[in-house]
Amino acid sequence: MTSVDVVVIGAGPAGLAVSLNLVRARRTVALIDSNRPRHLVAQSSHGFITRDGTSPLEFRRLGREEVEGYSEATVLSATVNSVTRDGDDLVVTAAERGGASHEFRATHVVLATGLTESFPDIPSLRQFYGTTAHSCIECDGHEYVDAPIALIGETEDVAERAVLLSQWSNDVVLLTNG
């Protein structure tokens, strides 16, 4: 078992940022990520200073390299199987795809696992995800300035989201999917 100050689960933008800041503060960190990013199919990510328009995979690669550059960091491509309490500590077990198991004892665990979208039951929608169908208005709205936009939504805040889209286009159609 390896003892660290913090285990960070998830190596997207949030997990990478917290890991980098912790190792720079001389905390030992195990950064564990399954390497199955939600935006795997997206061509570019936006809103990150000096990296606007970079592909999500490239963004993650660069971030991992930065974190790995510190001796206080252990970066692992693995799936977390469990987080359990042992006295005042937390024990995190993880397994690599090849089968190697790892166990970390830490004082703190940061969950930076991101989001998972729930897609409406619309045939073929997934084939457009990340190219012309997007889940994040704030991330991808600027790429559709003054273009027609259709918003498909089934949540209580869908009307609010449609109004928000009007910042980028005057031609917004709201589809409530029934």
- The tally of strands reads 8
Instruction: Name the overall outline.
Output: elongated
Summing up helix and strand content along with how strands pair, one would put the structural category as alpha/beta
Query: Biggest sheet, in brief?
Result: 6 strands, mixed
Give the neighbour order of strands across the main sheet.
3-2-1-6-5-4
Radius of gyration: 19 Å
Helix/strand order, N-terminal first: EHEHEEEEHEHE
User: What is the distance, rounded to the nearest whole angstrom, between the alpha carbons of the first and last residues?
Assistant: 53 Å
**Tally of separate helices:** 4
Helix content: 10-25%
Mean pLDDT: 90
- Our estimate of the beta-strand percent is 25-35%
| Poorly predicted sequence stretches spanning 5 or more consecutive residues | none
Output the keywords:
178 residues; alpha/beta; 6-stranded mixed beta sheet; 4 helices
Description:
The protein has helices at 13-24, 56-68, 137-140, 158-165; strands at 2-9, 29-33, 73-77, 79-86, 89-95, 101-111, 149-152, 172-175. With 178 residues, the protein is α/β, with parallel strands linked by helices. Helix 1 (13-24) runs parallel beside helix 2 (56-68). The protein starts with a strand and ends with a strand.
Summary, kept brief:
The chain is built from four helices and eight strands, in the order E-H-E-H-E-E-E-E-H-E-H-E.
Topology:
Blueprint (H helix, E strand, L loop, with lengths): L1 E8 L3 H12 L4 E5 L22 H13 L4 E5 L1 E8 L2 E7 L5 E11 L25 H4 L8 E4 L5 H8 L6 E4 L3
Parallel strand pairs: 1-2, 1-6, 2-3, 7-8
Antiparallel strand pairs: 4-5, 5-6
Helix pairs in contact: 1-2
